[in-house]
Design a protein that fits this description.
By secondary structure, the protein is α/β, with parallel strands linked by helices. The protein is built from 17 helices and 15 strands. Strand 5, helix 6 and strand 6 form a beta-alpha-beta unit.
Length: about 575
Amino acid sequence: MNEIEKALLSDVSLDEPWGLVESFSTFKREHPADVDRGMEEVVSRLRNHGVEVTVHQPNLYLSIPGQARIEANGKTFRAKPPAYSLDARNGLEGELVYIGANQADDIDTIFDKKLDPTRDVRSLIEGKIVISEGFASPGMIAQFEELGAIGVIGINPGVDIHWGICTTVWGTPDLDDLPRKPNVVSVAVSNPDGQELIEIAKAGGTIKMFTEMEEGWFRSKLPEVFIRGSKEPEKYVLLHGHLDSWDVGVGDNATGDATLMEVARVLWKNRDKLDRSVRIAWWPGHSTGRYAGSTWFADEFAIDLEENCVAQVNCDSPGCRWATEFLNLSRMSETDAFIAKAIEDVAGKPTFGERPHRAGDYSFNNIGISSYFMLSSTMTEAMREEKGYYAVGGCGGNIAWHTENDTLEIADKDILLRDIKLYALAVFRNANAEVLPFDWRETTREFLATIGTYQQRAGDRFDLGPSKSAAEDLHAALETFYGGVSSGAVSPGDANAVIQDLARILVPINFTREARFRHDPALTVPPLPTISVATELDHHTNGTEGFALTQLTRGQNRLVSALRQAKRQVERLNPA
């Protein structure tokens, strides 16, 4: 760490951020009016330090849950409806059927589909209310709705009920998305109540579900700080996180909002030391609009983001109690060494990175932007097991996530200070790196490993040789390119243009199925998704294998074309 970086981190203080966390711990930020109150406080605190803030006011389509309950056998069961459940304040009555499923054991399975695709349960589900293990999540609700359910009950893993959202639509729907907007009544219940309801289902009983929902268009405040760099002011790092939360949401995401605010204050104070710019934003509509705020921003500034954004950095759930480690840390492969060095320098900890999930305001994949961080530090697996915790999607692993228990005690001052410094250092280094600190050779290594796994699964039914050859050729070109960067044969300006252009090609081919500037559903996207059907050929033995192979052919064509396009970009600058 150089002297400028040390001086920058010495400016980081808990005075303002902890004040914000304490304030946010006193009021809920679910309804847009309450979210606006939180936005106004962030803006006021920043302006008190002379920071210039622009407040956008997008019109977002949101779903705000109210009360819910289940009535059965003369008893009332407590429940919470997820955002985008249908309103059923007059009650939905029906036969209850239990369809067993495994509880989620990581963030992907929290949000993904629940049933094995070979399992035929339509005849059991159609026209009935389904109860099953899991959070009332997009994959679960969509799958049971597709199978004909009129209502869905998710049995949460413990005694608490977690708030959530059940639409697969990412952000405000457009006309093409509208058919995927949920059309069933959904709720979540605690595990003890779920077990009792399972017995009612096994006895062939009926139940009545009640939900109160408010759905529609809401004008929402969205603050943005643009800190202009001195050398390449048009280029910027985008740092962001959500401000709306469930209940008071201290660990998810008051601590993140405080982190963004303090990084904005410190970088503004030191803006004369920035080479590139830094853009910082607080999102509304994360919880009640499936990332509606960040999606609006991605849509509204799409062309500017495409031309000028060098990286996007998400900040969710930093500074939580017991969150000492950096495990399962979201990052794209090309950023791995860069963030590992920042974490080592700030925290003295190793980094265990993983592929970013289809979650957490990663609303920029279809534009093609290198990305790192989502959920922040977390507790160890050993501590989670010791406490009997199950997998959740935030709060540093604390199961207070998305419940009324996510209160001030979830935040930890020392860990928050460390995590703020980490975000500040990573963003500052990214903005000031002479050559953008992303190594695309790590990405091509990832591609080759993925292709190898897919080929093994496909066996002799399909040849992924063209994909492998194209990835190997790109990797070889990248070796020459980075050698030229190191030797000075390729100038920093030229290198940065190529590194950014590669993101526009390789991020979409690895993280999206939809066309650029559209948004994939809020469901897991496998690596290199255009050829991922190679892993599913065993399921296509009932006359559909030919269709699957046709899809693989088309997907491989798209992948090979992208890899060759990337290779041409690299070879433009490779030394002769």
